[in-house]
Write a structure and sequence with these properties.
alpha/beta; 6 helices; 38% helix; binds adenine
Length: 230
């Protein structure tokens, strides 16, 4: 049976998924849930926030549950000014914004790259899912591109402008690239999917508080569509 690993950083990001899949808590210590949906086994977990937590959770899902795919779902701060709150971003690739110099990741015994490419099949399924949700009015818009990750909540006009202009991010969050790196090291196909809760600018905290739950729910809905297609 195909096993899909789902990683969310926070409880609010997994709430919709848990309910939708009628998931059972199978490992309380690591917040791991199991569900069966459309002939697939789903293993979903709450990793905790940040790069280390999410990398450890990814490795755990790969080692202990032999997942065939990993999908990271959640919310993010938008960097591209043409995005609106609750728009979806499908990562084609993920990059750290707080690893300097990034080129060190290209060196021997490393990955050979600092740009972590998501799985093409999962990207296509996510696009189809977003198009369907757009047609039915459940989401307004979506885009594909680079998602940036780092160990900080970005809430500065200046930083968000730099991340867009210099690092070409569509949005910024705190786990996607570390999950990607762990998947690449283990040769597991992966996708990062985010819904915009704020704009990583001076007003980020207020927007986050208002939209985080709704954005997380929406990302969960897109995820269900993706799993339907797998
Ligand atoms: N997740 C949601 N909004 C974020 C932000 N502004 N910075 C980092 N991670 C986020």
């Amino acid at each position: 049976m195909l096993t899909v690993g789902i990683i969310c950083a926070m409880n609010k990001e997994i709430a919709y998924i848990k309910e939708k899949f009628n998931a059972t808590l199978i490992e309380e210590k690591h917040s791991i849930y199991e569900a069966f949906y459309e002939g697939k086994r789903i293993i979903a977990c709450v990793s905790g926030i940040g790069k280390v937590n999410s990398a450890v959770a990814t490795q755990r899902l790969i080692f202990n549950f032999s997942v065939d795919y990993i999908i990271n779902v959640g919310i993010a701060g938008g960097l591209n000014k043409s995005l609106s709150v609750l728009d979806m971003v499908i990562a084609e690739e993920t990059v750290y914004h707080d690893f300097h110099p990034l080129e060190l990741l290209e060196q021997e015994n490393g990955l050979g790259t600092y740009i972590f490419k998501c799985d093409n099949r999962l990207i296509t399924l996510a696009e189809k899912a977003c198009e369907k949700m757009k047609e039915s009015g459940k989401i307004k818009n979506f885009t594909k591109g680079r998602i940036l990750s780092g160990d900080c909540f970005v809430e500065s006009d200046e930083v968000s402008r730099r991340l867009r202009d210099e690092m070409k991010g569509e949005c910024v969050e705190m786990e996607g690239a570390s999950i990607s790196q762990t998947c690449i090291l283990n040769e597991v196909p992966f996708l990062v999917l985010r819904s915009i809760s704020d704009f990583a600018d001076n007003g980020a905290e207020m927007s986050y508080d208002t939209f985080a739950v709704k954005a997380a729910e929406q990302a969960g809905e897109v995820l269900c569509e993706i799993i339907n297609g797998l």
